[in-house]
């Protein structure tokens, strides 16, 4: 496996994505973490950084176990680092280079550039530049503005590049990483979904043995794939619990339960809708609603877990982006780990050991692992749905009547997207019940009823998003259907806000 040492660049995660696309397993660790050991890795990549090697406190790391001993690739800050601290000179560049550039010179004898031709477009993002290289370093590529755009060290398997091969705009970036990892470092490309499944199943068996494991299913992709992996490993010792919080989509509880049955999972459906409604009664503040839902979920889940005699483990569908400790931009050792908000962070009193089979993989890898195990394509392609469900799509207080109304609206919208072949083009979609009433006319009657908003966004990770340009004819049909079929709704609007500054959910 490959180690990516993170010096705090915004795009370090992308390096990992590119490496894994080559079917090579890698891990990201902060440069100042105590948790990695160079001995366990076949090659090392140094990431970029918001810092300058000439700054007051540049991030530093002891590379004596690596440099000259293992294949080593420095990217951006990593390249400047390997020059500056080993006898070269880094200074501020006359022209700051941000964005596209072309490699005007390439040394094709260098194995790093095998199969890459001069002129290749790369992505630069730096204000420092390498002015001179130490003696045994050899420049192997330049751009118009940057003489030392890439170098190698004679007698070592050390390479460095000023540009970012990991970003999409570096056209031959993946090829370059392949040259380094496969041809120079000799790493085998064995990280496939099938191998991941086999290795993870073996790991779970080893870790959990004959113990019982409880897992909270949500109907979503992550918890489902986690459940199927565990089921493969420990079979009937896996106890899944699917809680109906009364805030799911229309008919979702029964249809998802049925689907799980067909997959051979041992699932207990627990309908706790009333408990959730009771706790939510009269609450309008979004965070108060989230808290109430989290609390009831823990109560219900704890109660169910207690019914399983001698259960020792709690399984969770946590994925890699939730786990990666990245170096914060100020360079401090502050490690931010997001809490797994679907579960709301289970309390210590449950005294269960944790098993998280997906904690080292990204969302698209979860989907591929799921496909490799034969999980239904429709299930794997489901839109994300928030843990608090429709409670954060009903602005204001929650009543069972409002939930039922919104479920109808949502079902017409989502089914419409499916029927028109739009569902898979949208990253997430849903309907929002607004706390306003407006005047309308139906037949000869004046109406004074509710308004709903439709939201459909495209995104890659939910961090940023843009509204989807759905066809007018589609919106027209859905709007008609909703107003004609859902009693109490007489107005439909479409949300055309991007994130930021808006968010995907309204609460
Ligand atoms: P926002 O509204 O923050 O949403 O732009 C980003 C993504 O996160 C989901 N979301 C949640 N998921 N618990 C969850 O499990 C929550 O409290 C929550 N709030 C938002 C949202 O659906 C979108 O995919």
Describe the protein:
- By secondary structure, the protein is of the alpha/beta class.
- It is 30% helix and 26% strand.
- It has three domains: 2-184, 3-Layer(aba) Sandwich (Rossmann fold); 193-380, Rossmann fold (3-Layer(aba) Sandwich); 399-494, GMP Synthetase, Chain A, domain 3 (2-Layer Sandwich).
- The strands form four sheets. Strands 2-1-3-4-9-8-7-5-6 form a nine-stranded mixed sheet, sandwiched between helices. A five-stranded parallel sheet has the order 12-11-10-13-16, sandwiched between helices.
- Helix 1 (12-21) links the parallel strand 1 and strand 2.
- Helix 4 packs across helix 5.
- The longest helix is centred in the middle third of the chain and has 22 residues, at 286-307.
- It binds xanthosine-5'-monophosphate.
- The site of xanthosine-5'-monophosphate has 13 residues, from loops.
- It holds the Pfam family GATase.
- The active site is at residues 76, 164, 166.
- GO terms for molecular function: GMP synthase (glutamine-hydrolyzing) activity.
Short description:
The protein has helices spanning 12-21, 77-84, 173-184, 193-208, 221-234, 252-262, 273-280, 286-307, 320-323, 363-372, 377-380, 400-419, 472-485, and strands at residues 2-6, 26-30, 43-46, 72-75, 89-106, 121-132, 137-143, 150-153, 158-161, 212-217, 238-244, 267-271, 311-315, 326-327, 335-336, 353-355, 428-442, 445-458, 466-467, 489-494. The protein has 507 residues and is of the alpha/beta class.
């Amino acid at each position: 496996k490959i180690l990516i040492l993170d010096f705090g660049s915004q795009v370090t995660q992308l390096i990992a994505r590119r490496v894994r696309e080559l079917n090579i397993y890698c891990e990201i660790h902060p440069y100042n973490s105590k948790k990695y050991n160079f001995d366990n890795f076949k090659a090392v990549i140094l990431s970029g950084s918001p810092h300058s090697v000439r700054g007051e406190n540049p991030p530093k790391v002891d590379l004596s176990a690596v440099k000259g001993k293992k294949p080593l690739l420095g990217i951006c800050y990593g390249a400047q680092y390997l020059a500056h601290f080993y006898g070269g000179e880094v200074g501020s560049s006359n022209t700051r280079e941000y964005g596209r550039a072309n490699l005007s010179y390439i040394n094709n004898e260098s194995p790093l550039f095998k199969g890459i031709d001069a002129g290749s477009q790369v992505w630069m993002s730096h204000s420092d530049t390498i002015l001179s290289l130490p003696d045994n370093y050899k420049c192997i590529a330049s751009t118009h503005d940057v003489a030392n755009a890439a170098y190698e060290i004679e007698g070592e398997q050390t390479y460095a590049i000023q540009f970012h091969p990991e970003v999409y705009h570096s056209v031959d970036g993946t090829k370059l990483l392949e040259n380094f990892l496969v041809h120079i470092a000799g790493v085998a490309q064995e990280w496939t979904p099938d191998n991941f499944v086999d290795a993870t199943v073996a790991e779970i068996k080893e870790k959990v043995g004959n113990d019982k494991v409880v897992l909270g299913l949500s109907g979503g992709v992550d918890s489902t794939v986690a459940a199927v992996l565990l089921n493969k490993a420990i079979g009937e010792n896996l106890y899944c619990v699917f809680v109906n919080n009364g805030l799911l989509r229309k008919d979702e509880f029964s249809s998802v339960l049925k689907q799980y049955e067909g997959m051979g999972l041992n699932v207990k459906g627990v309908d706790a809708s009333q408990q959730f409604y009771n706790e939510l009664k009269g609450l309008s503040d979004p965070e108060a609603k989230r808290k109430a839902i989290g609390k009831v979920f823990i109560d219900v889940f704890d109660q169910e877990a207690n019914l399983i005699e001698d259960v020792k483990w709690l399984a969770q569908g946590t994925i890699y982006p939730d786990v990666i400790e990245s170096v914060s931009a100020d360079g401090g050792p502050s490690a931010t780990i997001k809490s797994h908000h679907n579960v709301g962070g289970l309390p210590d009193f449950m005294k269960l050991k944790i098993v998280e089979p997906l904690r080292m993989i990204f969302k698209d890898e979860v989907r591929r692992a799921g496909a490799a195990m034969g999980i239904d394509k429709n299930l794997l392609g489901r839109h994300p749905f928030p843990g608090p469900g429709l409670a954060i799509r009903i602005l204001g207080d929650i009543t069972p009547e409002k939930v039922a109304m919104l479920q109808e609206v949502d079902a017409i919208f989502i089914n419409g997207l499916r029927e028109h072949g739009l569902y898979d083009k949208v990253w997430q979609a849903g309907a929002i019940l607004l706390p306003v009433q407006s005047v309308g006319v139906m037949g000869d009657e004046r109406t004074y009823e509710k308004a709903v908003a439709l939201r459909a966004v495209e995104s890659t990770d939910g961090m940023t998003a843009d509204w989807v340009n759905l066809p007018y004819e589609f919106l027209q049909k859905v709007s008609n259907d909703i107003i004609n079929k859902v009693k109490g709704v007489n107005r439909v609007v479409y949300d055309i806000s991007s994130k930021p500054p808006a968010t995907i959910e309204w609460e």
